[in-house]
UniProtKB/TrEMBL annotation:
Domain Alanine racemase N-terminal: 7-224
Pfam families in alphabetical order: Ala_racemase_N
N6-(pyridoxal phosphate)lysine, modified sites: K36
SUPFAM superfamilies: PLP-binding barrel
Cofactor: pyridoxal 5'-phosphate
Name of this chain's protein: Pyridoxal phosphate homeostasis protein
Length: 230
């Protein structure tokens, strides 16, 4: 059994436990393996375990993996996307997790060959070091996207603050869930907003307890390959 397989076993157990605590179904939570820091070979190890959702955060890294991997996987672009790089990325991915400004929406509308499933990035904690809209801004922003034929807002994304205080982390996730429910209740054709992308290696269990449907797991699953090589 590889390290990735062992890691996945442990992660699946933690997901099961989190779902039990929150009375949710395991099948309602999708693991995105964040492969941005590891090689093609390590990424193939991940795919061999049955995980078929992969996350990259740089156009160059995405292209490198796309050129080398022919498996039927779903690609998630999880990093900030510069407008000048939209052309290289947008028709190669299945999901974009970082839609946070009209200029980016304009470029997607211009460059996408078909409708793109997007998560609107919300900076719930309002930290200056993080990208995304405030909770107050997000609702109006999503309304503005109604006339963009190439964008479908499938959900919201956030990153928790860098803290060991679980109550602070939980509150951030809880606020995003409340916003997601508020938008979903509007039943907007262009923004069904049924999904929540939140939770990473250190806090995915809390995220699941608060309603995450996609968790973005890197180190806890794929390891720190650069350190292992040393």
């Amino acid at each position: 059994m590889t390290n990735v397989q062992q890691n996945l076993q442990q992660i699946k157990q933690h997901i099961q436990d989190a779902c039990n605590r929150s009375e949710r179904k395991v099948e309602d939570v999708t693991i995105i393996a964040v492969t941005k820091e590891v090689s093609v070979n390590r990424t193939k190890e991940v795919i061999a375990t049955g995980i078929n959702h992969l996350g990259e955060n740089r156009p160059e890294g995405l292209k490198n993996k796309l050129d080398a991997i022919s498996d039927n996987v779903k690609w998630h672009y999880i990093g900030t996307l510069q407008t000048r790089k939209v052309k290289a990325v947008i028709n190669e991915v299945d999901y974009l997790h970082s839609l946070d400004r009209i200029s980016l929406a304009d470029e997607i509308e211009k460059r996408a060959s078909s409708k793109v499933d997007c998560f609107v990035q919300v900076n719930v904690s309002e930290e200056e070091s993080k990208h995304g809209l405030s909770i107050i801004e997000a609702e109006d922003f999503i309304s503005e996207l109604e006339n963009y034929s190439r964008i479908r807002v499938v959900g919201l994304m956030t990153m928790a603050p860098n803290t060991d205080d679980h109550s602070v982390i939980r509150n951030v996730f809880r606020q995003l869930k409340a916003l997601q429910e508020k938008i979903a209740a509007k039943q907007l054709i262009h923004a069904p907003c049924t999904e929540l992308s939140m939770g990473m290696s250190g806090d995915y269990e809390i995220a699941i307890e608060e309603g995450a449907t996609f968790v973005r797991i890197g180190t806890a699953l794929v390891g720190k390959e650069r350190e292992e090589i040393k």
